[in-house]
Amino acid sequence: MADEVVERLWTDQVRRHDVDLVVAAGDLPFDYLEFLSSALDRPCVFVPGNHDVDLSGYANVRGLWTRAGLPARWPGPAGGVNADGAVVDVAGLRIAGLGGSIRYNDGPNQWTERQQARRLRRVTRLAAWRRLRDGRDVDVLLTHSPPLDCGDEPDAPHRGFACLHDGVRRLRPKLLLHGHIHPHGSPKPDRVLGRTRVVNVVGYKVVEVP
């Protein structure tokens, strides 16, 4: 899910969905994600979008959140796993995450193409190290923005990242889940990069990972 709150999911109706994991691709209220995770009794993995607060620099040490070495209140969703710039194993899936959008003003979670490519290189190194350790590949690449020319839009704020093409080639995920591109009443079809299915999850979709 991403970007648009689905009101009926913010009720007990959400319990009708039999899912293993809540995956959020950014720009959703954190209390919405907390409710979904609690109501479904399932973990939540997320990356921040360009309208989310800056979550960089926070660390959780034995249950205590710090920032720059000082105690701090974690502004993200309680219990949520922030996969931005990381590789996490949750609910049997290996998920690599890259939040944010292309830089178009001075807001948080915005990156130039070069900055995002640098962040991607770190993620691919983490994934390679884990693959060497246990032989497992990344199942899902979770991003806020789509790859360039693969479900993005021509206006500057909604242009995708070219580096994600290289990320798909290196990580070989089964799925790339992204948000940021609102349907505005028009269906957004899935796309394919190599063997990776690229899915726009604005609003929400129930997806089965093969």
- Helix percent band: 10-25%
Largest sheet features: 6 strands, mixed
One letter per element, helices H and strands E, the order comes to EHEEEEEEEEEHEHEEE
Helical stretch tally: 3
Strands, total number: 14
Distance between the termini: 18 Å
Describe this structure in words.
This is Metallophosphoesterase. InterPro entries: Calcineurin-like_PHP, Metallo-depent_PP-like, UPF0046_metallophosphoest. It comes from Saccharothrix mutabilis subsp. mutabilis. Pfam families: Metallophos (PF00149). The chain has 210 residues and is α/β, with parallel strands linked by helices. The chain has 3 helices and 14 strands. Strand 11, helix 3 and strand 12 form a beta-alpha-beta unit. Helix 2 packs parallel to helix 3. The protein is globular. The two termini are 18 Å apart.
Please supply descriptive tags for the structure shown above.
single chain; 210 residues; alpha/beta; six-stranded mixed beta sheet; three-stranded parallel beta sheet; 14 strands; 20% helix; 23% strand; globular; Calcineurin-like_PHP; UPF0046_metallophosphoest; Metallo-depent_PP-like
Task: Please provide a brief summary of the model.
Residues 8-183 form the Calcineurin-like phosphoesterase domain. With 210 residues, the protein is an alpha/beta fold.
Secondary structure layout plus pairing:
Blueprint: E1 22-24, H1 30-40, E2 44-46, E3 58-61, E4 64-67, E5 70-71, E6 81-82, E7 87-90, E8 93-98, E9 101-102, E10 110-111, H2 113-134, E11 140-143, H3 163-171, E12 175-178, E13 191-193, E14 196-200
Parallel strand pairs: 1-2, 2-6, 8-11, 9-10, 11-12, 12-14
Antiparallel strand pairs: 3-4, 4-5, 7-8, 13-14
Helix pairs in contact: 2-3
